[in-house]
């Protein structure tokens, strides 16, 4: 059986792109593979996050994962810092990670360029900790975005290096998992690129109805088609892409026909889209609030998840210590 691992940094709320992209696939996948889903709070520390906000973000993302359909009785759901074995494995892997290869990662160079006053050791060794997250459970598949592909390649390098150095076939070379045609890519509302947390172009699962309406009505469009069957501008194409994810097929067909005839009214299009988004995510928002208010349930989920994750992690660390020659007298 495939072992799938996915982590998310607790940097804020999940948005529509997260839900219609990876999250819905995770909900299906958890029944067909051995899945580990974790909240990467150690990784968030590289940006010196506010302690109070960090804890609340962990709580929020956990509630959103559960509300979206991740089942802690089927998959293993845990908080990274609840599994101390990840830091020991990161230390052990770091003994065979070279400074030069870490300094050459695109993400590190980008962070150095943008924040030269905060070039901490955590940023440099970020790929080693990420490799430890993955190899801790000997994951065979890891869903990653373009910005993380280089880190996953380094994980394979570390796995091969460990196996070759100690003459074992212990760590698998984890492969990227992109869901193929099943992955729905939700664009942002600003007319360019994907929906994201930092781009300020997203609709979040916890947004109120009014917030959703305001955001959608501000979405970028154009002056309208000037002749039948005009090509869609990027902003209008983005709106139709989102509509295809949340609206009924006949609704999408109606507005596409209106556009093709040069009869489209973007105000009507946006109003319909806003109401369809509200209809799609209102039940999730209600579940998020209910789960966030159930402290006993959240404690049970993270406690049981940590116990399951530590069982897998303890075996891996024990094996690695033995292979590397760290043995009791």
TrEMBL record:
ATP binds at residues 9-11, 17-18, 145-147, 186, 194-198. L-tryptophan binds at residue 133. Pfam families: tRNA-synt_1b (PF00579). It catalyses: tRNA(Trp) + L-tryptophan + ATP = L-tryptophyl-tRNA(Trp) + AMP + diphosphate + H(+). It is found in: Cytoplasm. Its EC number is 6.1.1.2. Keywords: Aminoacyl-tRNA synthetase, ATP-binding, Cytoplasm, Ligase, Nucleotide-binding, Protein biosynthesis. A motif ('KMSKS' region) lies at residues 194-198. PROSITE patterns: AA_TRNA_LIGASE_I. InterPro entries: aa-tRNA-synth_I_CS, aa-tRNA-synth_Ic, Rossmann-like_a/b/a_fold, Trp-tRNA-ligase, Trp-tRNA-ligase_bac-type, Trp-tRNA_synthetase. A motif ('HIGH' region) lies at residues 10-18. Coiled coil: none annotated. Catalyzes the attachment of tryptophan to tRNA(Trp). Belongs to the class-I aminoacyl-tRNA synthetase family. Homodimer. NCBIfam families: trpS. This is Tryptophan--tRNA ligase. It comes from Alistipes inops. The gene is trpS.
